[in-house]
Amino acid sequence: MSAPIRAVVLGLAIGLAGALTWSRLVAANTRYLPTVPWAVAVMAPILVAWWHYLARGRGWPQRTAEARKLLGRANGVPDHLWGPALGAGALGLLSTLLLQAVLARLVTLPQQRDLDPSQYPAFTVFAWLVMSAAVSGIVEETAARGYIQGGIERRYGLAPAILVTGMLFGASHFTHPEVGLVLLPFYVAVSAVYGLLASATNSTYPSMVLHAGGNLFSAFGLFVQGRSEWAPSAVPAPTIWATGPDGPFLTSVGAFMIVGAVTVFAYRGLFRAARASTQITA
Prior knowledge:
This protein is mostly helical and about 280 residues long. It has one domain. The protein contains 10 helices and no strands. Helix 2 (about 40-55) packs parallel to helix 5 (about 120-155) and helix 7 (about 185-200) runs antiparallel to helix 8. The longest helix is centred in the middle third of the chain and has 35 residues, at about 120-155. It is globular. The model has no long low-confidence stretch (mean pLDDT about 90).
């Protein structure tokens, strides 16, 4: 088995294992003693062990430690790159939301489904959301941007790595019944935002921060406003096939083009700063 294929298989396996462990614990917690978020207490040491073994390369066997550390891509980020990385990533996510505002007028997007927070204590729901954000950030970024993208990127380059990772990242969300092909552009775009950060900094840390923060923000948007994470608003607007290309649609297109252009410049600046930092430390 070639190194890129092995990296993809490993990435899918460890990502699935981490995500399924948490989803099963939450499902059990909703049925048994839901007044206490005991699933969080159980998941916390599992997540720490997962992180140290699969991302940091610690533990037995030592002969695979360096490979796990390389694939995990949990490398330090120079202080002066954190600002440009988070700024470029935030612009990338904003561009993605503006793209969704355009797509939402072209096709009908599904409504996100999740548990009903009114059925459980507020503290329990809050604890679940925080741990879900941590699991998404740590597990998905290590698996997708570390193992899968990194393995492909080292052999075939950045563009194929981001495209393949984005397709797999989107397909992995098809386990949710409401997610289908219509949302694949959204997940590919999000994957590109995080993947470019990982490539520029050679680290999953910036994308972990944005992924976890974005998931937490989206969860509150869903529970408080009823807005799906891929939708610009809680109430879907009619498609332009019914109304024609009206003012709000043209405004969304213009906003996407402007913010998208700014995002491109931000990422170019980040890559330049990262290369300069590498040359200085070399």
